[in-house]
Amino acid sequence: MVSEHSAGGDTSALALKILVAGGFGVGKTTLVGAVSEIRPLRTEELLSEAGQLVDDTDGVDQKATTTVAMDFGRITIRSGLSLYLFGTPGQDRFWFLWDELAQGALGAVVLADTRRLEDCFPAVDYFEHRRIPFVVAVNCFAGARAYGAHDVCRALDLDHGTPVVLCDARDRASGKEVLIRLVEYAGRMHTARLLDSVG
Amino acid sequence: MTETPVDGPLEPGSQWYDGEAGPLVRPYAMTGGRTQSGPTGVRFDLIALVVLDPAAPALDDSVLGPEHRTLIGLCRAETQSVAELAADADLPVGVIRVLLGDLLELGCVAVSRPVPPAHLPDERILREVIEGLRAL
Q1: What Pfam families is this protein classified in (chain B) (predicted)?
Q2: In this predicted structure, what is the pLDDT of residue A93?
């Protein structure tokens, strides 16, 4: 790693970022809360309406501003190594915010509800196009018909190898398992790309 | 700073402001209208980590605003990410970025750079993360 050290500072702390995406009400905040050691914090980003239309959202000096709330949580692996989880804004009109969130992300969890699987299509598309490693975690809601991981994988037409995990977003152990699958997968993807780039 | 100056008793129905109305100070007023951090031009990632610089100069109130001091206070307790600072100080991330730019230029804090997109942490770190998650 080249750059976890600050310019001119003495911190060697490393922070990693994982995104939690999916449709509205699918359980993103619940999942973040289940595994986070801090209560889910909300952070707000102020953006101009005009900024949505351009790539560069730095110019937030317009008059009309929109406040977008993002949930996040933290897991301390050890002193100096933390994992941050960000729930992506649910509404489609905040897509442009995802680019910033996705910058440097280790990977993403796409939460899906089999009763309305189509809600997670945009997130799947987004991460596939940007080649950001992701796992699909099917939040098994009570009353939803149970589908196997294979059915979900086919229904979403996922790229070969993309993991599909059945989970309960309220359950800490289940959430941990989802994150472990993601980190393992991100590691495999990364290694494969390194091999591609030298071969 | 967010208080409404009240002169004398309020007439019934004249209380325009309450918590639901939102902040009385427009967020970027705290930055003097600036929406981008100073000449260093750094854009802090949400997970960039902020630590106090032990060699920070002693600064008086004319240099630092109350929000700057809030940030310093939060960082004094422990290393904080930009996102945590925004949540704890209850300010938009954009405002935090400008204020942090000031603190960085004044030599009060050091800010870690985020991992560039093309560089995932090495395998050893990922293994540590997986083991750490298992042990939770």
Answers
A1: DUF742 (PF05331)
A2: 65
Q: What is the pTM of this model?
A: 0.80
Q: Is A86 helix (H, G, I), strand (E, B) or coil?
A: strand
CB–CB of B24/B17 below 8 Å?
yes
Instruction: Show me where the domains of chain A are located.
Output: 15-198
Q: How far is it, in rounded angstroms, from Cα A120 to Cα A117?
A: 6
Is A43 in contact with A73 (CB distance < 8 Å)? no
Q: Phi and psi at residue B90, in whole multiples of 5°?
A: 60, 45
Which of B 12-31 lie inside 8 A of A, CB atoms? 27-28
Contact (CB<8Å) A84/B83:
yes
Out of A15, A183, A190, closest to residue B49 by CB? A15
Closest CA to B40 of B86, B109, B93, B127: B109
Q: CA nearest B50 in A: which residue?
A: A11
Confidence band (pLDDT; 50, 70, 90) for B19?
low
Chain A, nearest residue to B125 by Cα: A81
SS3 of A168, please?
coil
Listed as ranges, residues in chain A with pLDDT below 50 are: 1-11, 49-63
* Residues B126 and B62 sit within 8 Å (Cβ to Cβ): no
Flag if B128 and A74 touch (Cβ within 8 Å).
no
Q: Domain A15-198 belongs to what architecture?
A: 3-Layer(aba) Sandwich (3.40)
| β partners of residue A78 | A81
Cβ neighbours of B61 (radius 10 Å): 9
Q: Do B133 and A106 touch (CB under 8 A)?
A: no
